[in-house]
Every structure is written in C-alpha cells, then in structure tokens.
Specification:
The chain is globular and about 75 Å long. The strands form 2 sheets. Strands 1-2-3-4-6-9 form a 6-stranded mixed sheet, with helices on both faces. A 3-stranded mixed sheet has the order 5-7-8. The protein has 2 domains: 9-199, 2-enoyl-CoA Hydratase, Chain A, domain 1, CATH 3.90.226.10; 204-260. It has helices spanning 33-48, 82-95, 112-118, 135-138, 145-153, 155-164, 170-176, 188-199, 204-216, 222-237, 240-249, 252-260; strands spanning 9-14, 17-22, 54-58, 100-105, 108-110, 122-126, 130-132, 168-169, 181-183. The protein has 12 helices and 9 strands. Helix content is 49%, strand content 15%. Helix 1 packs parallel to helix 2, helix 5 (145-153) packs across helix 6 (155-164) and helix 9 (204-216) runs antiparallel to helix 10. The protein has 261 residues and is an alpha/beta fold.
Length: 261
C-alpha cells in the first residue's frame, strides 16, 4: 500500500498489517474534523489495498484519545449536524471495512475514542487504560455508541455507562465485553501481535458475511435472519477459499483431478 502523510495520523505498514495511530499529542489525540477526514482517506486506501488484511487503530504517546475536540465548534454561529454526520460516516467505513480491524488502547480512551473501539473486530488494552463516555454529562450525546454499546454490554449496563458517565478501567471493560484482551504494558506489543495473528487466515468474503450477520442478529426475527444466513452461506461455499478447503479434504487422487479441472 502506498503510504501517505497525514496531519493528524501516523500510518505505517508492516507486512500485511497497516497501523493507524491517532497523532495530535498536543491535545491528547482529541478528534477534530481534520482527523475525521484523514481517517476517511486512509480507510478508503486500505479498503482498496490487496496487500493489507489487518488494520490496527491505536493512539500515540501513551494516550488513545481524549475524545471530541470542542474547539472545532464555532462561537460565531449555531452548531450544525454536518460535522457529526461526517464522523458517523467515517465510523461506518471502519465498521464495514473489508479487512480485519483491531483497536489497541493505551492510556485514556474517552468519548469518541470509546466509539472508535466499538467499531473494531478485536479490542485490547493495557491494564492501566481508562475508558469513559462522558458526553451526556457535558450536554450532548455519545454518537452512535447509543446504538452499538448495548450490543456489547446489555441495555442496563449501557445506560449506566452513558448516563452516569463514570470512568472505568480496562479490567471492567473486559468483564463487560467491550474488550477481548487486557495485558500489562510491558507485554502490550507482544499481545497485539498475537491477536493480529489469531485473526488470520484472511478470507474477505467470509469476514464480510459473518460480520454483517452478527451486526443484524439483534435487529431481525429468526425467519428473516435464516434467510439472510442461507444466502450468505451460499455465497461463502461458492468462494475460492471454500473450494480450496474441500480440495484439501478430498482424497489425494480426487484433489489432484480437481486441481487439474
């Protein structure tokens, strides 16, 4: 993948893994509109890259993100919803990206930072990480975390986290289901590499279909869902990856004939 330079991000590639680090250290990686635009751009590039199978989203200098940068709002005119709409569009791009996504959290992860974590397929943090959804306490809403959070933690716990706005530690986030892994800081990079490895092998069709079904499992009834599942499974078993799987499972003679065919 061709690397670009961004004002608010540091982007690197190692093998088939692209790491996107939020990088506004002077404001604790607060999310402004320039960062939203930068994230949209890099996600579009990653989506089209044939040499990428994992996107890692992380912070920099020991902080994930302090949340939304309120200085982006003008004092000279009433706030409009356009910027927040762009944010939600970018979030959906990450959530539906045709690559595995991993959130790797160090330090504080506040507001919009938590929203970014909820978008990812795998989510890990160091033990000292602190999470908080403090938007309601400040007089606005935590974006579409109002839609996603309850799917991870249940409605009652989601209400508590959003309405009370209390900080919570990584171990609690793990117990709630927001995180998959928690580790010591000294083993953070090693744990991240292991998690990335566990996501492979990468089959784009199977990833897209499984993620789509999981995302809609709370939204539709059984009869609707099984119809969607069967259509998805039909596509999956007609993919090249599944063809190779059944060839391997066949007897050596049948496999040889299939490969010739």
């Amino acid at each position: 993948m061709a690397m670009k330079t961004y004002e608010t991000l540091k982007v690197t590639q190692e093998g088939t893994v692209v790491t996107v680090a939020l990088h506004r250290p002077q404001v604790r990686n607060a999310i402004n509109m320039q960062m939203v635009h930068d994230l949209m751009d890099v996600v579009e590039i990653v989506a089209d890259a044939n040499d990428v199978d994992v996107l890692v989203l992380r912070g920099s200098e020991g902080i994930f993100s302090q949340g939304i940068d309120l200085r982006d709002f003008s004092l000279d005119k009433p706030p409009d919803i356009y910027g927040l709409q762009k944010w939600e569009k970018m979030c959906r791009q990450i959530e539906t990206l045709n690559k595995f996504t991993v959130a790797a959290v160090e330090g504080h992860c506040i507001g919009g930072g938590v929203q970014l974590v909820l978008l990812c397929d795998a989510r890990l943090a160091e033990k000292k990480a602190v999470f908080q959804l403090n938007e309601v306490k400040q007089g606005f809403l935590p974006g579409m975390a109002t839609f996603r959070l309850a799917k991870y933690v249940g409605l009652g716990r989601a209400k508590s986290l959003v309405l009370r706005g209390k900080p919570f530690k990584a171990e609690e986030a793990l117990a709630l289901g927001i995180l998959d892994e928690v580790c010591d800081r000294v083993s953070f990079e090693e744990t991240l590499q292991r998690v990335v490895g566990e996501l492979r092998p990468f089959h784009a069709d199977a990833l897209e279909l499984a993620r789509r079904l999981l995302n809609e499992c709370y939204a539709v009834d059984y009869e609707t869902f099984i119809g969607h599942f069967l259509a998805a499974q039909h596509r999956a078993i007609n993919s090249q990856a599944f063809r190779e799987l059944i060839v391997k499972a066949a007897s050596p003679k049948k496999a040889q004939n299939a490969l010739k065919g």
